[in-house]
Write the structure tokens for this entry.
Amino acid sequence: MPMTLKITKSNKTSDNLREDGSFSPKKRIKQIFEPRSVILVGSSKIVEEVGMTSPELFQNIAYNMKKYFRFDFKIVDIEKTNTTPNADLAIIVLPPKESLDWAELVMRAGIQAIIQITGGFDAKFREHYLNLAMKYHVRVLGPNTIMGVVNPTLGLNTTFEPDLMPGKGNISVISQSGGVGAALLDWATTYRIGIGKFTFMGDKVDIDDINVLEYLANDPDTKVIAIYMEGLKAGRRFVEIAKNIIKKNKSILVLKGGITQESARRAMSHTSSIAGSDNIFNAAFKEAGIIRVRDIEELFNSALALAKQPPMKGKHVAVVSNVGGPAILAADAIVREGLELAHLTENTKRTITNRYPGVDVMNPIDIIADARTLRFKFILKQVLMDPNVDGVMIINMLKSCFFKPEDAKVLPKIAEEFKKPVVDVPVGAEDFQLVTDILIDTPIPTYDLPDKAAKALKVLYEYNKILKTYNHTK
Amino acid sequence: MPMTLKITKSNKTSDNLREDGSFSPKKRIKQIFEPRSVILVGSSKIVEEVGMTSPELFQNIAYNMKKYFRFDFKIVDIEKTNTTPNADLAIIVLPPKESLDWAELVMRAGIQAIIQITGGFDAKFREHYLNLAMKYHVRVLGPNTIMGVVNPTLGLNTTFEPDLMPGKGNISVISQSGGVGAALLDWATTYRIGIGKFTFMGDKVDIDDINVLEYLANDPDTKVIAIYMEGLKAGRRFVEIAKNIIKKNKSILVLKGGITQESARRAMSHTSSIAGSDNIFNAAFKEAGIIRVRDIEELFNSALALAKQPPMKGKHVAVVSNVGGPAILAADAIVREGLELAHLTENTKRTITNRYPGVDVMNPIDIIADARTLRFKFILKQVLMDPNVDGVMIINMLKSCFFKPEDAKVLPKIAEEFKKPVVDVPVGAEDFQLVTDILIDTPIPTYDLPDKAAKALKVLYEYNKILKTYNHTK
């Protein structure tokens, strides 16, 4: 650790100032997510006994940034230099004391934002960090963000897990927990869920959930916000900003940890969350129009549907399936979710029967194991045209059927002609993979089981109800 | 189709007869699952317009049998021959009329069992098939089994999906639906779930679910029976045989399709099931000690736990986790399933605190992100020794942690010292894969989310209650 720090001159631009010359905090938080120049401050020597600082972690972040970041990136190894180049954003991965020294150094040099990866900051240190941030008008994410931020559009990836890089999309994630955040990022990367911005909140000395939500409210790359939270410090502000976000036709999903007395106690010690009763959260979420989910899988399954498909205007679902048994499980799941099986009009039934006499037009519609592109296309179109149908679940298995993955290519083309949600279920494991490979970049989300697709349609129906409430109160 | 069929002489052995010389049907059903010689009867020319018969399907079954079957296998192409070698089992994949002709031919030649893959048999044809089976004392599975039977121990695989071959294990599956069966087989193969016997029931002219259950009751390779059913024709017999199976310390899981009025209507047209009210099924399952599940994933997740772990004798679960947030989600899931978080004894707490002062011993126990083999080993052992703990959920994430997949190797060794269930959750997607690669052949089942592991523990607790009821009524 160098004892004397050489300060280079600040080159703050007018970008950081409002028109009246005053400081604009919103402008600054943008540099957390959209910097054009980044420095990574770490040590090639220090290994913390308790804590995450290590040369390996430092190198891993450098690896991700060098490989993915599309703009200017520089490494500052504090063992080799005591000066710092200026940049929009500094990523700091050092023990508390060293972090604070270098935070002040980069702030003086004109940095606009800091992501503090490492933790272990006591109350005094945290207060000091906040004071520095206020003094230098610098926004700080963290400390203890563990993984920081991922923005696939710019290739910004401050995580220390090599190549944990999701694809570009319009689902943004906020996690109050490093572990849950890491699991969410793993899930999104592995299952190719397109991400807008990914944020690990950490200890929140400066930037809090509300600030990030304010940023995401105006982020054109964000359509759905998926949040893992354990508690809230400013419930009222949270509800207000959530309402503003939903007014912009975006949607918010929350997975809340600590719903039981015991787990809430643990959440308190984990993220200092004031947990509050679960009913209070439910009421707040309901008022805001936030959709609550049960687990990580449901969070992403729901987010995918909201990101890709329109809201479902009624609760009547048609199932178009090339297999019998899974269609029955689909019908069960639809009813279990509180939705209903659509009653097709006589006209729809007649049109389908005329063309395919062998198809039993009772919903769920079993279009038989030898159905390929033409039959799916014709029947999906008839069903979507039916005024009694609000949404469609397609089941297109490969195994035991004639359907080939490439046959699925026609489905998004039919679906886009109508403003009704369509979800696709290639029931199984390999079948799911093979059909998902075809549909991954289209607006049709895929699910491996009918139960998950039914839940996704339910969320699209709930979202429609939320939007209706907003339109009434406008 | 040859018009004159040459009949070779039967060589039925005394194996087929009871000691008193009478025919033993149980002996014969064994040849469905454990034949030492198999013939596949199909056509290299016939393509059915409606129905599955085709040269491609015929070739695919031949491919699987040639590749995997460890005993004698011969192909009979009816376009090239009008004689048939004798064998234990014939697989027939032809249209109804041709199937019946060849069924009689192979029966006369001394075949002991037939798997009729293809369907399309009307009532008259089905009756004819049954009459033949009775006349020649041959057991018939099908028609319309679609995929037939898989027995990994012998390499028997009568499916027409190339290389859809699960590994050997002690979970046996019975499916009343070809589509659901195909999805289950895909799931088991892809997620490496070890299979005892896999049966697609089809139209059941002869062999029915009860017959298969009777066979599995005495099958040493079957510990857990996972059933997909849409209805039951002999509910009382089903309950009785299920009770006998559970008395042998095996367990039965059922996924029932057609639980709603609409889907039951569809099930009736799909498998001619007399669906009955869902409450009647619940009562029957409860009486028999059958555990009911909600979907395909829960079916296999529960089966894995029952196949690998002991019943859970109480409802108190400890969570040992290297991450905070996922442990909180685990606690939520445990309580949601009706289980409880164990209160560790003071002795356990003290022992852990003495060795690892940084670990907060409140359950869920957060053993901190840098935990590796030694810490997991020590704390898992203390927790399993604790009399207040009935089962343990381990959470060992890799991402954001120091844990490496090979660190998991020690876990089965510790777990096997105690008769308490242990399940493992490497929360996420890639993390789940990497740790599962290490644990797949050990008695510790892995789950990708705490919610699924909590459900698995719940099933182990339910199974214990079932066994207790049986012991009381013995």
Notes: Chain A touches chain B through 74 residues (CB under 8 Å). The first strand of chain A starts at residue 37 and ends at 42.
